[in-house]
């Protein structure tokens, strides 16, 4: 399996406009997969409680933070999301010299959710993920079928002051701190010689495998990647294209900039085909802790034909029903062994309506342009509303308790009028 999916971006001052951090990700997954956007409030747990992840059960912590997640509907974990402390995480598939294990363990997506639920800073999320990785390992099918599609994971993690790039190979890992500028990751290792944290036996292991001679400068990407170098700088690669798109707006990167990058089809970042961009996220995090972060999600495929809708963490935030897929509980084919013997209908309400409108946009040019304009007008209006909150803070939190759901309803009204 060639690296062929997902791009994650983060921009920090001084590359952004204002004192803000902008995080973005396209989740590129099988084209028939439904991605849902869900909210889980903060919660306390009794001692000795367990949590059932996608494939395995692990120990629960005493308290989990509130999270908003964009995830393939069959998974416990998530492709991307944020928590109430404005930590954002996205993961990428990477392939190393070590084969990816199909033995069931934690998926990279499980680690995204666990990191968000348990860490109030980006650096703590690195610690949470790596401790769980070393204890439980990573492995299991990453697609809802019996193909045994497996991979290692890299993570881009940000908070109000910095970002961390975390890359893994089995239970081994390296992490790099990003304190300013911008950073993007695709499906290859990107940490080279600047390593700020690492698995204590990561170098020793590489030497034992004959990947590193123990004398030359240690370069994580070169040593662990299944290619001679992990930085695919060839013209046309998504990593290179993404970097260039960020550079083009360097010093002026905004949420709109990031949405534009995620919608870019020429670069391949907005992916089409058997693997496509099934969900997208853009977060705007002021460095001022007194101001809220705003997290935009599409909950629908192809950001070019989707509306980025805002979510803000407030007390009493309500469940996101219109973007929550049907639940099958213990009868879910993912939970029964042998797994994946059938595929239930996981389409949520917004997905169904979006699917119909996407077909109209595809088939009728003039009508499609009108619908797309109305969708963009709604998105622009929402962003103007959010700009006031990003600048001045939240006056009436109760009004924002159903912000995302109201935005979804407005999107569906645009569809019905079309």
UniProtKB/TrEMBL annotation:
UniProt record, GO biological process: proteolysis
Region Disordered: start-end pairs: 322-344
GO MF terms held by the record: cysteine-type exopeptidase activity; dipeptidase activity
Residue intervals passing through the bilayer: none
Signal sequence region: none
InterPro entries: Peptidase_C69
Pfam family membership, one: Peptidase_C69
Similarity comment text for this entry: Belongs to the peptidase C69 family. Secernin subfamily.
Protein name: Secernin 3
